[in-house]
User: Fold these one by one.
Assistant:
Number 1:
Amino acid sequence: MTNEKPSERGLRPSAHNTATTTNAGTPITSDDFSVQQGKQGYIGLHDVGLVDKLAHFDRERIPERVVHAKGAGAFGEFEVTEDVSAYTCADFLQPGKKTPVLARFSVVAGEKGSADTVRDPRGFALKFYTEEGNYDMVGNNTPIFFIRDAIKFPDFIHSQKRTPDTDLQDWNMRWDFWTLATESAHQVAWLFGDRGIPSTYREMDGFSSHAFQWINEKGERFWVKYHFKTDLGNGYLPQDEADRLAGVDPEYHRRDLYQAIKDGNYPTWTLKMQIMPEDEAEKYKVNPFDITKTWSQKDYPLIPVGKLTLNEIPKNFHVQVEQAAFSPSNLVRGVGFSPDKMLLGRVFAYPDTQRHRLGGNFEQLPPNRPLANVNNYSHQGAAAMEFSEPTVPTYVPNSYDGPRADAEKSPGDWGRWEPHGDEPYRGDPYPHPEDDDFSQAHVLVREVMSEEERDRLVSNVVGTLGEVEEPILSRVFDYWRKIDEEVGNRMEKDFKDSLK
Ligand code: NDP
């Protein structure tokens, strides 16, 4: 795949009729020469056009995302095609409703310039610009995750990133973490299967991964999981092809997405939900709020809701995608959180990292600005752009008709559930019969994957073990034997054979 030519991207050769200006709008004297005192003299700080240009350039980069730094975004629409009003009163989920959406797909561990086709989960983040405020679903292309408690998140990410001394990525670190934090087994088994490297962003599913709450007009609550099923079917890249593409076209997935949309091949996904009545959670065979577990689709079949279509590429990547800030804390009435400890950690961490990356007024940037009115008492701060009429007070309570909170219109308590006791508690939640770390990974490897996919899984894992040392190496084989004995034994044999 090559870049489109400039003319295909809408650029036209022409005479330059527009005068270049400073960022304050003043026309400048020259694009080519800074001003000097005489032909070899010093350049002057009073050359405002020069200083303005260099100073802005010095500040072009913003901190990249700590995770999910490399990504691609596109705009589109979500249309509700079914009636799920029995489960949620969220306005944007009512029959026939259409809502503008921004989607961003990403790779987790690599930096902003890293290759698209590495083995890694993919971010699947959606911002719904609803009439009741922005609603973000910040999910992945997998329904599960490596850990179940946010307290481990920084450690997990450090193990996936780079060594402190040489700044190299390191499989030894990754396997060390995974084999010690064995709740990773399900996600790791997924990662080394075919879906660990999607063929394109268009051919992968998206999941909320976390359980959320839906609340209907009567106040009845349901636990739900979102599945955005690609209408193209899931596709994958074999490891050798992914490695080749990482060299010849590190932007492969981004380019594919933009080219498809430009060609009018709009990618679409069907949203399907798993819906669990509130009182079934305690009795379910696994803890339904543990993000390392799936709810079997045989127990909770997928219920169709609507269609997501992406039909517009960004006009400016930095403004509309790099500055997009997604957060699972963005909820609307009719949706609530669940007692998933990863989710509750992310509800804090996402807006926190956006404040660091983009500043305290990041919600005023174009991709984050809600279509709904913002009425509150936040004001000032760096780069403030929006402001209320001077007749609106900056404090509450007030006597001047300023906005007042309205519980009826809000997500209320942002989800409500039984805390099971008042004492401080650290540990796994109350037990469910199948709450172990390996059973679902086993089902995936033995029952869902085909024989050929299992062969590729073994080879994908063995290919990462060259730099792994004892005792971690033995732990890797034991970990895989706990997932599936035959697969673990085969990995050990194939690895040892490869050393002969
Ligand atoms: P089902 O037989 O109802 O579903 C199997 C699921 O596995 C389908 O969604 C299928 O997606 C997906 N799948 C197929 N190949 C792969 C692969 N290589 N990697 C990951 N997923 C794949 O079974 P259950 O719901 O009872 O779940 C059985 C196992 O399937 C689970 O342990 C879990 O590992 C995996 N799974 C479960 C999901 C869930 O939410 N219940 C979702 C995805 C996977 P498709 O229909 O697109 O082929």
Note: Residues 341-358 form the longest helix (18 residues).
Number 2:
Amino acid sequence: MKIYNTKTKSLEEFKPLEEGKVRMYVCGPTVYNLIHIGNARPMIFFDTVRRYLTYKGYDVNYVSNFTDVDDKIIAKAIEEGVDAGVISERYIAECQKDMADLNILPATTSPRATMEIGGMIDMISTLIDKGYAYRAADGTVYYRTRKFAQYGKLSHRNLDDLRSGGRNLKVTGDDQKEDPLDFVLWKPKKEGEPYWESPWCEGRPGWHIECSVMSKKYLGEQIDIHGGGEDLIFPHHENEIAQSEACSGKEFATYWMHNAFLNIDHKKMSKSAGNFFWVRDITSKYQPMVLRLFMLSAHYRSPLNFSDELMEAASASYDRILNCISNLEYLLKGDRTADITDSEKTVLESFDKFTADFERAMDDDFNTSDAISSIFEMVRLANSETVEASSRAFIEEELRYIRSLTDICGLITEVKEETPDEEIEQLIKERQDARKAKNFARADEIRDELAARGIILEDTREGVKWKRA
Ligand code: AMP
Ligand code: ZN
């Protein structure tokens, strides 16, 4: 399996630090608002990477954080007149809802920066002890960038050409820096801001130190894969390397993977530019899986331009998968011969070949775009080769092949059967009768049964009303 490594700018054979195990860290969102579909691109892509590695038999430890202390969170808290924690808790919960809708598996651990302050103080102290960091007069602690000789190795920048440009480079007291390239590890509190005690001043951590610390705590000093959007290469990931490696003396991450942007009109989608859609703007219009299919239809290192036409095309494609599966499931309901025929076996060999094509594409730096075409080859074949006389075992195998690949892509393909209105009315009537007869156990059973089918009952003065969830 080959992975494109930003650090070496080349495709490299994947070799984990420990056989059979993958330690993976993906920078998560800053939670001051809902997530937009640009933020969803790394979430969907790296979730697919994780699913594929798991399919290949690796035991994947996947950590993705929430940045829950930040200037923007604080600004929003002040605007609303609430604590910063109220804002971050609210948007973590909303983000988790969107992630569940998009079938993004919960990370093995999703640490929150504010719960890891002790670890940050420890790492900053180590950096000061080793001469990689210093405290300025007002209590700000800076990283001494030039002291880390390999600075720039990820983003391929030369120290002398570098201009300071990151989120935290200009936050406070620039004139106190020994060098303009130095970046903030800890900064003093301002009036009304959340703060923590530290050996340097009451204050809060810089953004970069958070990921170094959370990655170390949950995955160890060395990890296999570190991921995020390409805007994080510099300065965020460069600074993470400087912090982690100065501290441990070991290589922090072996493979650095970065997704390209999701664009609108060929410009990066971002909250600051105002050219964005929330995930739920889109999932209220299309099924969430359509967004997932759309994201995976491009290679992760290629920019992807969002458009209604492409979403319509993804929607039609997703329907093709669902229709195929629902047809196969329908055929399984009838009586049919059990055993596979020789000609069916030959067809299944093609399914095997498409699985191999899928794996080859994924092994080639997670080429989801090519991999997905194997799913459509399977759908095409299933549609043409499944007939009234097909055997049960053959249809079951077809379903298994298709589902195996859609599962790796995280595409939900369960076709939900809707309970017809008349059946619901009938069950409600039965429940009413049970209640009249004081058989409350049966009445509750029916309510639960309806709930399981997504039907919500409401007892009103005018009688029982129901709706679909
Ligand atoms: P943020 O909340 O801005 O720190 O972003 C969270 C993640 O979303 C990071 O990995 C970013 O690189 C990524 N991201 C933000 N905007 C986009 C976009 N338009 N396309 C792709 N990834 C993005
Ligand atoms: Zn990070």
Note: Residues 166-173 have pLDDT under 50 and may be disordered.
